[in-house]
Amino acid sequence: MRDLLLRLRRSEDAARPPHAWLGALGGAALLILAVIFIVGGYELGFGSTRRLGTGAFPVITGFALAVLSLAVIAGDLADKTDLEKPDWISFAAIGGALVVFALTVGRIGLVPGVFLTTITASLPDPALKFPGKVLLGAIVALGCWGLFIEVINLPFKPFMGL
Amino acid sequence: MDIITGFSQGLMVAMQPENLLYCFVGVFLGTFIGVLPGIGSMAAISMLLPLTFYLDPTAAIVMIAGVYYGAEYGGSIASILMNIPGTPSSSITCIDGYPMAREGRAGIALFTSAIASFGGGIIGMVVMAVLAPALATLALNFGPTEYFAVILLGLVAASAVSNGSPVKGVAMVAAGLMLGTVGVDITTGAERFTMGIPEMRDGVHLVIVAMGLFGVGELITSIRANATGAHQNDIDYKKFYPTRAEWKSMFGPIWRGAGIGSFFGALPGTGQTVASAVAYAVEKKVSPNRANFGKGAVEGVAVPESANNSATQTAFIPTLTLGVPGSASMALVIGALMMYGIVPGPRLLVDHADLFWGLVASFLIGNILLLILNIPMIGLWVRLLRIPYKYMYPTIIVLICMGVYSLNNNVFDIWLTLAFGWAGYLMKLFRFEPAPFLIGFVLGPMMEEQLRRAMLLSRGDPTTFLTRPISGTLIVITVLLLAWSIRSALKARRQGRAMPMLSDE
């Protein structure tokens, strides 16, 4: 696992940084969002200029965003520079940690949920070996139990379904 | 209420044991976060927001403010010792702070930074105590038309004068405004863009947006940057006390830095980074020691630190008196106040005078606490810099999860945080600033409400925004600001250089 991560990290480091024109994809996403709000806003009703309806503000901001996103697309397509190198390993691991937390905390309880979340989050750093990740997970899980359940008295169950 | 009476009353509020405790917690956590490169005060404030629900509003705001200005103190430590700015505004401190450290004068640089931060903070506090009531009195005459224009100006200023493309900044504001409309419309009761999901009826929670964009998004960015392990330094920081000549040389820059910082802090959209950059540039022109700037000049550390701390205090002026945040951190302050049902604006100084003056007085106490934390306890923060990041970031992600989950005990909030976290990272990757998005999100509902009222009062005449003198002037300033920022961006692009980094959290 550690070797795989190191290989992935090395190949990510060696890869060419993405072109800035890819930022136009962000502009396109904003344009889609704008269209959704314009259409949704019209369906909700614009009202009159005196009494603005529920959909008026989303339509107005939607039109503003549509124009701006076209300008963003045009600007980014003309950009010849490179973006920063992305860190997809950390992107996936941190996202994975949140997924693990969401899937476990209500099913197996806070302590095992936090334990697994910590291990998942620590995956992208090969400097911390697996026993170290497990130890860190145990310390953080026990710390959360002590702090959130015993001290702050939040209504979380430390263990469930075990 | 006059300033002296107000401040005395505020001191009594701030000296209450609960407020003192939370002031200490805030400045301690702020320094802690500021020292760590990569994790900004925004992430810290976002993580603390769920905790503040259990506190009295004054204690909550005192603590959030403590994190905000504590991070400015802490940010200079990493700048001086490692040449890595803990916060964006401390990047200017690196220019002279790090060379001082390399010359074996790290202790003196840290001492200068603490004293200048204290001086700037206190001057900023005095400016806030004097100006905020005056501005609030003026704003009492504002109607919905003027409020709409002020909010529009604040939004454009916060997005146009930011890091990178102003067009992208304004687009992010518009996207934030749209997200603010999700949920039940408070005027008509109709559901908007909830996709039939019951959890979306109350809209998206501010904590989720802030934690996702700034907590998760920043954390992903920081992992690779901090992957080298513990930050080691072999710098001698034990020789602390400046010579008599160094004391004399820092006095003028502290005053000038505080003056410039107070001005820029009060302007929406500029903030601490612009304040410290401008103050440094001015000092470089006027200082008799200008030849040594960039080589380890005491003045080069004193002036940006004084400027960014005074700006941190005066940033509260438009936030509290007009309800217009100049930065994303101030947007969170507004969000926190609104969660307590307190509407920021000119009435805040009348209806919640204890909160306002308690906050002002807490600045004095917080700055004294920071002086104690930053001079005798500097060794603690230096040791903190040696903790490997591989132990810290998994713990931080767990704290983010816990903070979000504790809002409603609902995993749906975690899924939303994941979506905003990934979106925040992609925004940064594709050079979209998340801060204007958050400001738009916070101000969106207010802006919509003022627009509706203004249109109702003007009987549907949209020219009311231009024909009323105050709102007309503000709209013209907004258009000019937008035009200026677009022109500057085009000019910078033609010259083949990036826009200067101006954004603050």
TrEMBL record, chain A:
Ranges where the DUF1468 domain occurs:
26-156
State the Pfam families in the record.
TctB
Q: Which UniProt keywords apply?
A: Membrane, Transmembrane, Transmembrane helix
Q: Where are the transmembrane segments?
A: 21-42, 54-77, 89-115, 135-156
* Keyword Glycoprotein annotated: no
Kindly give the InterPro entries that the UniProt entry links to this protein: DUF1468
This protein's record includes keyword Glycosyltransferase? no
Record protein name field: DUF1468 domain-containing protein
Species annotation = Primorskyibacter flagellatus
Q: What is the lineage of its organism?
A: Bacteria, Pseudomonadati, Pseudomonadota, Alphaproteobacteria, Rhodobacterales
Automatic annotation (TrEMBL), chain B:
- Assigned keywords, A-Z: Membrane, Transmembrane, Transmembrane helix
Task: Describe the location of the DUF112 domain by residue ranges.
Answer: 20-438
Where in this chain does the entry annotate a coiled-coil region? none
Output the superkingdom of the source species: Bacteria
Concerning Pfam families, the annotation shows: TctA (PF01970)
InterPro entries found in the cross-reference section:
DUF112_TM
Tell me where the transmembrane regions lie. Answer: 20-45, 51-71, 108-135, 147-163, 170-190, 202-221, 320-343, 355-379, 391-408, 465-486
Q: What is this protein called?
A: DUF112 domain-containing protein
